[in-house]
Design a protein that fits this description.
The structure is a homodimer. Chain A is of the alpha/beta class. The longest helix of chain A is centred in the middle third of the chain and has 17 residues. Chain A starts with a strand and ends with a strand.
Amino acid sequence: MEAIGVEPGGTRPRVVDVPRPDPEPGEALVRTLRVGVDGTDRGIIAGDHGSLPPGEDLLVLGHEAVGVVETAPETGFERGDVVAPTVRRPPTDGGNEFFERGEADMAPPGATVERGIDGAHGFMSEFFTSPASSLVRVPETLACWGFLVEPVSVVEKALELARASRSSFDWTPQTALVLGNGSLGLLAVAALVGEFDVYCLDRRSRPQPGIDIVERLGGTYVDARETPLPAIPDQHEPADLVFEATGYAKHAFQSIEALAPNGVAALLGVPDSWRFEVDGGRLHERLVLSNRALVGSVNSGPRHFRRAVDRIGSFPDWFPASYVSRVVDVDSFSAAFEAGDQILKTAVEFDSS
Amino acid sequence: MEAIGVEPGGTRPRVVDVPRPDPEPGEALVRTLRVGVDGTDRGIIAGDHGSLPPGEDLLVLGHEAVGVVETAPETGFERGDVVAPTVRRPPTDGGNEFFERGEADMAPPGATVERGIDGAHGFMSEFFTSPASSLVRVPETLACWGFLVEPVSVVEKALELARASRSSFDWTPQTALVLGNGSLGLLAVAALVGEFDVYCLDRRSRPQPGIDIVERLGGTYVDARETPLPAIPDQHEPADLVFEATGYAKHAFQSIEALAPNGVAALLGVPDSWRFEVDGGRLHERLVLSNRALVGSVNSGPRHFRRAVDRIGSFPDWFPASYVSRVVDVDSFSAAFEAGDQILKTAVEFDSS
């Protein structure tokens, strides 16, 4: 069968022929519909991260997938069920407590592999197999947008951690500030506008489709070149919740300045090492005297996937089609890996039925 | 009646004669037993923080008090009840939602005054009044150590926020690292040793009574001059919980390096402005990829006071008497404000009965 593979940091991705996988007991064989592309995929191609499965010479890409169950004996799934797979799997030397309790997203580095990213093949192939416990049902009506379940689940997990951090007191947040109007930031804006007054900060110039989407969702776009992050409380409002989706390391620290008292910043970016100066005394003091918090969040688990399915169902009808810039078939797959200011979200389509 | 007052940053504290307060309806008149002294008091004397009550020319000090109810009509308290008062009160322009729901500790700066610290007289006087809702019962057997309820409550609130931040997943912490073996750090060690393997880091040399207490409690003292904070995971263990009680701003950031995956650092120190360089990219990445968190915590509320009463009851019998270096009467009060490596905790005694 066809798959899209890459040697991380080496070759460009290419279509390769790989054997169709055979499901083990407890696994489903899934026919792939669409697989989304994000910055992690581009980072693997560039060699910034990612690793080959043991003994393999290329990595099948893709960690944002939706597919249709082909066979899944004794798993609770039936042929025809639409499903989205979670990303983390036990390392080859076996499972661990995090997998046993369905919280692989909390497994430390080394206690997990990540399909399509680190040490395990991804979902960019005509078929894939997965343990049924790592598949989440997607309503048939959302099948064509089911590749958004994974990135939305990453938003849901970060929100869960952020809310939990404020759960010991009466917290009634009103204002959210999303850092970055890229593909993840826009999903956060879409998730938050129902409950928050949402600001979204980036450095992009109009016309840009991500800015249009922020505004159509009811959010306020803030150009960081005019209003830097620490100025947002004065220029707009302090944020009860900051959602960082830029990977710009200074944002982790400037977020503290942008928070309202008792606010929390959820950090999702993964920057490289970068030394810079901060007023560490002031940041420390501001965290303490106003009970502020920073929470880092990575990956997501089955319960976040289930919430993501509900969330996508609640998005405005126009949103997915506006947010997804292009869906290309396997023959044109390389167009899905192009990035640019006018491209929001892309996917590769393996099967449309 | 006698009180100990100060002009913040001006005069040394002195014994002054002030009118005995009359309780308003809903308030209790409390005869003061003992009032503890901490770094905040010394900071007020030095002029680092603190402010006078409106229209007053000195501030009665003291925010760590225990006393005996003298009169408290229609409050649920009776003459002879031992009580500890919380610190925050509504500003003179009236209460707000934080006070209404018993969470004044979450009130932002400006929405509260603090008795003995900011804009309201403290408890270092023969008598004080307090709304009954701001008093917490202390068992008679703990009356002489009841001035520890306030500082222990500050520990309890920080632990509550830290645990809440980890409540969305299965968190089974084993190792705690307390930064600072000063008066607050030692209370944290005493609170944590029942549940955690506790390390306590400071820069003090033996012989020092705080080091002896850490070890007698079953904790491990770490000399930061030999093992700096970021080296603790390699030299000892990564910490599931860091409890920062130094006010040393670099600790807020180095804590991230000392945390285990999924760990949380509770920050309690209040440093001055201090610019320094950090590897912000690495810290940001470590927060994200291992789901780490930082939570700031200030002050404490009635529920933390109640938990503190229980906690003090669970301390080893030897602990309070070893921890409290000196209790002096009003005539010798200035000895209670002396600080030094051999002095852990001090208090002024107004009445011993």
